[in-house]
Fold:
Amino acid sequence: MSWLVRSSSALKAAVILLAGIVVCLAAMYYLHCGPRDQPADPRVAELQDKLDAVKRLNEARTQPVELIELDAPKWRVKQIERRVDAYDREGRHPVYWYSKLDGGLYGVEEVIVWTVRNYLPVDYPPEALGKASFVEGVEAALSKRRDAIMNTCYNYVDMEATVVEEYVGDLKPKYKNVWKVYIFYMVAKWVDWVGLPTYVDGRFTAEGYADPAMRPAAFVVRYAPYERRSLSPRATYSLGAVYFCKYLDPHAPCKDAFEPEGTFIVRKVLDDGRWYIEIDASAPLNKTGLYTFEIIAEDLFQGRRCSIMHHTVEVPPR
Structure:
């Protein structure tokens, strides 16, 4: 019997030892392979910064805007990091890039503002000035471009920001200027398109339904030549002079502009009060440069005129 007791005790000891080993292995696995604190996703912080900026902007506006995601501001930031200007290196205004990257579906205005610290030492770290906060950008825009950012035609906004370093001097610069640049895209999204705005083979077509408050009043094509490079940064741009013009409702001749031929229909939809739009117009574009197709609407509630579509195409040099 004694050997049986001794065997049983040994077995219990072995089980306890094995359990201890398992616990130790599990603890080591958890410490080395288990879940760890993940770094914060910078996209979450950026989105919150944008939402805070929209909140601040809406505190100043009489009508609120909502956040919309566009591709054009992201691309424009890359251009501005090389050169701060409303125009790109080829002299194209930003609505061209909005049309190319986002379809040119709605009325839009790019608003650029910046703050600058001049003649800082070359080795001065830009992060010492703090990150480019969108709320800070809203405050700058309210001060410098208030009319544009407060315009109640716009009901959506997107924004981007960047920090640009500009070195002062020739071969061995001693100083640099540090720019905090903010880009706001104010968007007038009032149309539901069933046939997207398109220019192909000399014809412009579009079909959709405008908000009941926005009665389409005029179809306009603006022409802008390529802008020459400027020695100083430009914060504003121009879509150019009127090239074609057609009043939609009421019908009337446009002054000092060609009237395009084609189909121009605007009628009220009885079911929901929206305005049906159909345009199929001949629009030969003969000069090199940028042409922006625009629909101007009359706001029946506030008695103003709003551009509810900007669609730019390029006729490049041959």
Q: What stands out?
A: The chain has two domains: 42-69+107-188, 191-315. The CA atoms of residues 286 and 315 lie 8 Å apart.
